[in-house]
Design brief:
homodimer; 151 residues; mainly alpha; Multidrug-efflux Transporter Regulator, Chain: A, Domain 2; two-stranded antiparallel sheet; DNA-binding
DNA sequence: GCAAGGCTTGAAGTGAACTTTAAGCCCGCA
DNA sequence: TGCGGGCTTAAAGTTCACTTCAAGCCTTGC
């Protein structure tokens, strides 16, 4: 049940110094210490670590994650702040997903472009390609790309 | 048709120093200069800038984007490398999308959790919640979360 | 003709998130 | 009893992607 910092780090695919850094930044106030000052990670600490990992994945800076942890320690009075924070995180993630979809369309188009060009040994023929000559699926991608940038 | 560096930056929602930085890093070898050494951006340069923006959005570091630009300058011989690069970028974007979907599930769950807790003024009742008591949609999210971490 | 404003460069500074180093403590084992 | 290994800390170093600064060059308007 109890884990040393190295074991906890391995389980979270992090380094021990990273966990120490998070602790120093105030992200891990819930981690217990042994009599001699050694960090002892318990099962429930991994819930917190997974949540921190999740918030980091939304692009949240350490400073703001600390704010959230602090709110958790303050108790029920900060429930509205925490609710608002997650609503805001939700918006941020949805925005990132849209951005990533737009990026994927361009990458997909380029994949087709370079697959075709590499097969032909040159991309000159592609320069004079007309939209009508594109394969159906590539044309669709191209249309989405053009629709987005408003050209 | 021609743009100064500040105009080009404004159009790309970047700063002029950022464009100079990109140029210094070798990302903009295609940008022309006036007789007195002033950068002059033409329409086709924005295609390049949009592509650089796209590659950055995939999480690609500047160094690797420069590699791609260099390949472009080298001509047809590097078409396979460029094709492979975009295939690899595609994999990276799909992985990011999956990661973001997993993150969104956790955030959605937390949104429900804190909306419920904030309404109740406390999150204690939620601690003893049974999965059966969850609303249908929240239960679905919860199941996806659990399925992912393999618990 | 000259001052203002925008361009140029190289170099130094910034902030975020670690990572590495150095010095020291504690525990288990031969 | 002493040695090795893993823990502790504070502090310094690293990387990335800019950003800011300083000094100077063009061009344009009064």
């Amino acid at each position: 049940m109890p884990y040393t910092i190295s074991e906890a780090a391995a389980r979270m695919h992090l380094s021990a110094p990273t966990l120490r850094y998070y602790d120093k930044e105030g992200l891990l106030p819930f981690v217990d210490r042994s009599a001699s000052g050694v960090r002892v990670f318990k099962e429930s600490d991994f819930e917190w670590l997974r949540l921190i990992e999740c918030l980091k994945a939304t692009g949240m800076p350490i400073r703001d994650i600390k704010q959230f942890i602090d709110w958790c320690l303050e108790g029920d009075a900060t429930l509205p702040q925490r609710r608002d924070m997650f609503r805001e995180r939700r918006r941020a993630v949805l925005a990132q997903m849209e951005r990533l979809q737009a990026t994927l369309d361009i990458i997909d188009y380029k994949c087709w472009y370079y697959e075709t060009a590499a097969k032909a040994g040159s991309d000159l023929p592609l320069q004079s390609f007309k939209p009508e000559d594109l394969p159906e699926d590539v044309r669709k991608i191209r249309e989405r790309i053009l629709a987005r940038c408003g050209c």
